[in-house]
Design goal:
456 residues; alpha/beta; TIM Barrel; 2 domains; 6-stranded parallel sheet; 11 helices; 30% helix; globular; binds iron/sulfur cluster
Length: 456
């Protein structure tokens, strides 16, 4: 139960609870998982008692005790009976009755929402589609097997409510550190969309396609995070904010128009990293772009279906650095076509463009179930099945789950070990240089803004 946006207690199925509030105007909402009902506004006089009912609009499974649907899925409303003046003193009383049972409720509301409940063994999916808006559809999380139903996804992702930020310890969460945030920045991850427009063969995808949020919806959430929690840095954590040049520019222009004045980072694509795009990103506050490069060899890139070339990688990174944005450089090793030479080219490239923002290491390519590379591994007999993958092959993301190269396993590990040692030595050499310079600067200039050696 939320009263004026604050959690005041919990109410279980079939139970009644009483809450006491001061006279005056109040907003009453119910929340289930991360969904909230529309607020019910009450204006209470001293001593007034109001009886309310709440429940799910689309039905609830008592077995799962969970419902996932857009914001309007829950309701709180006045019950038929209103009792006035039954209590002495200055307080008013709100009595809220809990939800009705699924069968009763779905009988009464099938005209409003078409429900489909399906059981197959231990799998239980409930999917629905709103009759008034067929594009709004959803699915209920199956807690029994920790799996999502596959029938439908939200197409209009602007209709998905934001996380219930107020229920998290935001004072601690906002201390998340990301590349190029300062000690005074408060950071929060956010999604600008879901999915990706590319089809790299090692990438497992929960859902096909790309579902962007509108720039307005992104701006609205950032404004809320700024106002409520003083967030000054947004870490866009979805697969790909830079999904096209046009969309990237649109998002940045909406940030500038709203005068957001925040820092942010995102995942990006080097084939869209042109001076024109990067310049508007920089103006809109972008400080770091995490690029999935994955290989510095045209043959391997082609086999990965990465839709990138060495030429695009070089140009994109140079343009990013020239725009004053720090690039994140991610590389894999052990893909079909990888050799000692392709690994050494990747290490040389990383060292050449390292700006010290993050320690770079190269990780083995992993054929996650759901990816075309996993199917290839099954075909070639490198992995037997999903059980074999999780129980015997994929034991740690820094170890190889399968060998797709012509090198022996011994050679594979020995080459990766040499490569990562080179990268670490480079990182710590740079760090050492930076700290020596910082120390000299501190004592030679008597720098009063210095905040300690551990902050370097
Ligand atoms: S690896 Fe990145 S660019 Fe490639 S399909 Fe996955 S999310 Fe998209």
């Amino acid at each position: 139960m939320l009263i004026d946006g604050r959690k005041e207690g919990a109410i279980a199925s079939g139970q009644s609870e009483s809450y006491t509030v001061t006279p005056g105007r109040h907003n009453i909402q119910v929340r289930l998982d991360w969904y909230k009902s529309e607020p019910l506004e009450l204006d209470l006089v001293e001593g007034e008692e109001v009886r309310l009912e709440c429940g799910p609009r689309t039905g609830i499974s008592a077995e799962l005790n969970a419902i996932v649907s857009p914001g309007g899925a829950l309701y709180v409303k006045a019950a038929d009976e209103t009792v006035s003046g039954s209590q002495e003193g200055v307080w008013s009383k709100i009595v809220t009755l809990a939800d009705q049972k699924l069968a009763e409720y779905s009988d009464a509301h099938t005209s409003e929402h078409q429900l489909e409940t399906r059981r197959t063994g231990i799998h239980l999916f409930i999917s629905y589609r709103r009759e008034d808006s067929p594009d709004v559809c959803g699915r209920i999380y199956d807690r029994l097997i920790q799996q999502f139903g596959k029938e439908a996804v939200f197409k209009d992702i602007d209709s998905i409510p934001w996380p219930a930020y107020e229920l998290f310890p935001m004072e601690q969460y906002r201390l998340l550190r990301m590349p190029h945030c300062t000690h005074s920045d408060f950071v929060m991850p956010m999604l600008s969309g879901r999915g990706c427009t590319f089809t790299c063969n090692f990438c497992y995808r929960m859902d096909k396609g790309f579902r962007p949020r509108s720039p307005e919806s992104i701006v609205e959430e950032i404004l809320y995070l700024k106002k409520e929690f003083n967030i000054s840095y947004i870490a866009f954590s979805d697969e790909l904010l830079m999904s096209s040049k046009q969309r990237t520019i649109e998002i940045c222009e909406s940030f500038l128009k709203a005068n957001l004045n925040i820092k942010w980072d995102c995942n990006g694509r080097l084939n869209y990293a042109t001076p024109e795009v990067l310049s508007v990103m920089k103006k809109a506050g972008c400080v770091f772009i995490n690029y999935g490069i994955e290989a510095f060899d045209n043959d391997v890139l082609k086999k990965m279906q990465k839709a990138l070339t060495i030429n695009q990688i070089n140009k994109g990174i140079e343009a990013t650095l020239a725009a004053g944005i720090s690039p994140g450089l991610n590389m894999l090793f052990g893909h079909i076509g990888d050799t000692r030479d392709s690994l050494n080219s990747a290490v040389d490239f990383l060292i050449k463009h390292d700006d010290g923002a993050q320690m770079r290491t190269i990780r083995p390519v992993t054929p996650y179930p759901g990816s075309p590379l996993y199917n290839y591994a099954i075909e070639k007999g490198l992995i037997k099945d999903i059980r074999d993958f999780y129980e015997n092959k994929h034991l740690n993301s820094d170890l190889f789950a399968a060998n797709f190269t012509e090198l022996s396993e011994e050679e594979l590990y020995s080459e990766l070990s040499k490569a990562n040692i080179r990268l670490m030595e480079n990182y710590f050499e740079n760090k050492k240089k930076l700290m020596v310079e910082q120390t000299q600067h501190l004592y030679s200039t008597r720098d009063a803004s210095f905040r300690g050696f551990r902050q370097a």
